[in-house]
Specification:
This protein is mainly alpha-helical and 876 residues long. It is built from 37 helices and eight strands. The chain has an eight-stranded parallel barrel, surrounded by nine helices. About 1% of the residues have low confidence. One of its GO terms (biological process) is carbon fixation. GO terms for molecular function: magnesium ion binding; phosphoenolpyruvate carboxylase activity.
């Protein structure tokens, strides 16, 4: 039996509906053209060279009028195919085909088989702390309005899987037709770049449409598994998964995120939380009509005949008043906050807990554990601020504040001081009671912006804010400087300050930097036994290649875990992963289990970026599954930790890291032809025109590849299917190890060490997505003849690396054990291939005669970029 038959049927259904929409609105001729291209693409994928050539001829001969509708048809189809896939993964038919359909149930069974003590499981659950940090990134191409339509389409597919009367089925199919037509008539590319506030709103939309329902559902699932395994459920206040955000707080390299924007996002977050809880309380007020109640609840309801309803309605009125005040506050810069707002979580939880306890005492446990429990759990997970906001700023901006200040005070220039002098100054001022900044001092606009941000942080408190992240941190003074700035702003809570170690050298120096910091008595006393450190994946991989970066990340984590033990500090590692392999992406479950033992003891913090938020959390059931995968992986890491690597593994891994870094940099840094080749062979230059995220594509607008953000760097290479950053250097290093007679040791590492096994399986996925023929076509049409030999060389390297990997994993097929991922990539290729050919044609036209490019053609180019991103899935 074909286990993917249901998926193919849904893909076929959506394709037929899209075809019908094209026929209605564009006529038979366009539909026939699209269908001809699809058939040719399918034949070309099956190895028919004649059809492949004909496909190229048809696409390059399209008139200006045909380019856009054809590009849109294939891009739309990929969005629909992705949706069908998401729906399949949570459907009854799909659960038997995907990896780990019941991750928590499976884990508890394994814990039982391995005789893990109930007390240890209980403790691990008590310590379970997962914080997912939502970030908007420039590769989330789809607009919110389109995402809403796609979610509705998923609902139709789910309905069609259920038994329906003929009339019901007809109505569902009509709705499906209508939604696909709506999507077709909606511009899939934004007209303008989103602002940071728009990005924050997209985060709130994910919570409202999916996570608001998914979090209590996930906790019910976890509770059931626990009842089965331990005979006891989750405590009511358990919030093993929480959410934070960088949207509106991440000012690193983004001049549009100002203190004013941060304030607006913090208030909007509260507004949305109040609005969602008001809706919850509406429902509770309808349902909690009981009259039997405890004496405490009777008193709180002022002896109302329906005490639960009275207490819930009072809370609801207070929240409506709070929401109204927030509406006004968003219109004014400063608005005095009245004392009777619902501002702190306890004010929300206390009346609800009173209702819960009263129901329990009155013998109505079933009612207490229904909707009321869901609302309470949302209260603990989201609170009145919905998403806690992180603040991120570059270390240099903090140093600039003290540089201007010390010059004004006649103390010299902080920027020119040694690290010892900087520390001495900061540690002298940190315990000092008098203000540091003179009233008459007039700082520059840039410095004032940093001070205004710290002022906003101090005003909004620990319920609204999570961590202050310092990018490009490398010295203890970088952390102390932020502590002093926050203290001067009048902060009343110890906000965690996390240095972010990003490049290869940063990661290698991280343990030494943290050792110096933790050896400062004042600092250790101030942090109260807790430290957060952020590990950067994107920049380290861009700097050194994936293999060297992965080993540097692993080694840094291992050393930091040991260091925190030495100093008796609880360490939380914050992983700055992207969606792609080149940025630490890939399946989360495997990634978590490949971390060093002990690295999860202080909890897990990890970024969820751009389009990956939608792929993991876009539908409530999908989000429940993603949360279960996270929870099961962290629990497994705590209770069944991976082995400590043997000395022989470390030695070989260090050699692999060093060799791969040399091979990677030989191409990317030291080959003078590389940068011009990169710019010609990929749409890197054109990506800047796409209104994707609010941040500029470069940190330094006039710089070269080194100044490019990691995201457009990866994104550009996924567009031409060479996928270079995700594999370059790794294969050369592995080949060297095999030549040196290390095949048996590589085998052992693959069998026994999850870290190494995960590296190889990530390479498998990359090689399955990479396509040398497509990359060669980009070169043939777009790259000057003098640079083409470099492309040829890189493709030969890709082929050799792919061959070697198959040998190492003892297989003749990539991803043979991951049928689901393999199927999903193959399914999309037929629709991505025409977009590549169209993109090459449009890039050629744009580069040869930029002034002749029509608005239609320019938009078609943008659509191909968005469509390929949808087809590649984890492109950012």
């Amino acid at each position: 039996m074909d286990q993917y038959a249901a998926l193919r049927a849904n893909v076929g259904l959506l394709g037929t509906e899209l075809g019908e929409t094209l026929r209605q609105h564009l006529g038979d001729a366009v539909l026939q053209r699209v269908e001809q291209i699809r058939q040719l693409s399918k034949a070309a994928r099956q190895g028919d060279n004649q059809q492949a050539e004909q496909l190229r001829q048809v696409l390059t001969a399209l008139s200006d009028d045909e380019l856009l509708p054809v590009a849109r048809a294939f891009a739309q189809f990929l969005n629909l195919a992705n949706l069908a896939e998401q729906q399949f993964s949570i459907s009854a038919a799909g659960r038997s085909s995907i990896e780990k359909p019941e991750p928590l149930t499976e884990l508890f069974q394994r814990l039982q088989q391995q005789a893990i003590a109930k007390g240890d499981i209980r403790q691990a659950l008590h310590d379970l702390s997962i914080e997912l940090v939502l970030t908007a990134h420039p590769t989330e191409v789809a607009r919110r309005t389109l995402i809403h339509k796609l979610t509705e389409i998923a609902g139709c597919l789910a309905a069609l899987e259920q038994p329906q009367t003929p009339w019901q089925r007809q109505q569902t199919e009509l709705r499906l037709t209508e939604l696909i037509s709506q999507a077709w008539h909606t511009n899939e590319i934004r007209e303008q770049r989103p602002t940071p506030v728009d990005e924050a709103k997209s985060g709130f939309a994910v919570i409202e449409s999916s996570l608001w329902q998914a979090v209590p559902d996930f906790l019910r699932e976890l509770d059931t598994d626990l009842q089965r395994a331990l005979g006891e459920g989750l405590p009511l206040d358990a919030a093993p998964v929480r959410f934070s955000s960088w949207m509106g707080g991440d000012r690193d390299g983004n001049p549009f995120v100002t203190a004013k924007v941060t304030r607006q996002v913090l208030l909007l977050s509260r507004w949305k939380a109040a609005d969602l809880f008001i809706q919850d309380l509406d429902l509770l007020s309808t349902e909690l009509s009981m009259n039997q109640a405890s004496a405490e609840l009777q008193a709180a309801s002022e002896q109302a005949s329906e005490p639960y309803r009275a207490v819930v309605n009072k809370l609801r009125q207070q929240l409506i008043y709070t929401r109204d005040w927030l509406t006004e506050a968003l219109k004014h810069d400063r608005l005095q906050r009245p004392a009777d707002l619902i501002w702190h979580n306890q004010q929300l939880l206390q009346p609800l807990l009173l209702c819960y306890q009263s129901l329990q005492q009155s013998g109505m446990t079933r009612i207490a554990q229904g909707r009321l429990t869901d609302t309470l759990r949302r209260g603990y997970a989201f609170g009145l601020t919905l998403l806690k906001l992180d603040i991120r700023q570059d270390a240099g901006r903090h140093a600039q504040v003290f540089s201007e200040l010390t010059r004004y005070l006649g103390l010299g220039d902080y920027a020119a001081w040694s690290e010892a002098d900087r520390q001495a100054f900061l540690l002298r001022e940190l315990p000092n009671k008098r203000p540091l900044f003179p009233k008459q001092w007039q700082p520059s606009a840039e410095v004032q912006e940093v001070l205004d941000t710290c002022d906003i942080v101090a005003r909004h408190g620990s319920e609204a804010l999570s961590t202050y992240v310092i990018s490009m941190a490398g010295k203890p003074s970088d952390v102390l400087a932020v502590q002093l700035l926050l203290k001067e702003a009048g902060i009343s809570f110890p906000m965690p300050v996390a240095p972010l170690f990003e490049t290869l050298s940063d990661l290698q120096n991280a343990p030494d930097c943290m050792r110096q910091l933790l050896s400062i008595d004042w600092y250790r006393g101030y942090i109260n036994g807790r430290q957060e450190v952020m590990i950067g994946y994107s920049d380290s991989a861009k700097d050194a290649g994936v293999l060297a970066a992965a080993w540097a990340q692993y080694s840094a984590q291992e050393a930091l875990v040991q260091l925190s033990r030495d100093y008796g500090v609880k360490l939380t590692l914050f992983h700055g992963r992207g969606g792609t392999i080149g940025r630490g992406g890939g399946p989360a479950h495997a990634a978590i289990l490949s971390q060093p033992p002990g690295s999860l003891v202080g909890g897990l913090r990890v970024t969820e970026q751009g389009e990956m938020i939608r792929f993991k959390f876009g539908l409530p059931q999908l989000a429940v599954r993603s949360l279960a995968l996270y929870a099961s992986a962290v629990l497994e890491g705590l209770l069944l930790p991976p082995p400590v690597p043997k000395a022989s593994w470390r030695q070989l891994m260090s050699a692999l890291a060093s060799d791969s870094c040399d091979a990677y940099r030989a191409v990317v840094r030291h080959n003078p032809e590389f940068v011009p080749y990169f710019r010609a062979a990929t749409p890197e230059q054109e990506l800047g025109k796409l209104p994707l995220g609010s941040r500029p594509a470069k940190r330094n607008p006039t710089g070269g590849v080194e100044s490019l953000r990691a995201i457009p760097w990866i994104f550009a290479w996924s567009q031409n299917r060479l996928m270079l950053p995700a594999w370059l250097g790794a294969g050369s290093a592995l080949a060297k190890a095999v030549e040196a007679g290390n095949s048996a040791l590589l085998d052992e590492m693959q069998q026994q060490w999850p870290f190494f096994a995960t590296r190889l399986s990530m390479l498998e996925m990359v090689f399955l997505k990479a396509d040398a023929e497509i990359a060669a076509y980009y070169d043939k049409v777009l790259v000057p003849a003098a640079l083409q030999p470099l492309g040829e060389q890189l493709r030969q390297q890709l082929a050799a690396d792919r061959q070697l990997l198959l040998q190492l994993i003892h297989s003749d097929t990539l991803m043979a054990k991951e049928g689901w991922i393999r199927e999903s990539i193959m399914l999309r290729n037929t629709y991505v291939d025409p977009l590549h050919i169209l993109q090459v044609e449009l890039l050629k036209r744009a580069r040869q005669a930029p002034d002749d490019l029509t608005a239609q053609s320019n938009r078609a180019l943008m659509v191909t970029i968005a469509g390929i991103a949808a087809g590649m899935r984890n492109s950012g």
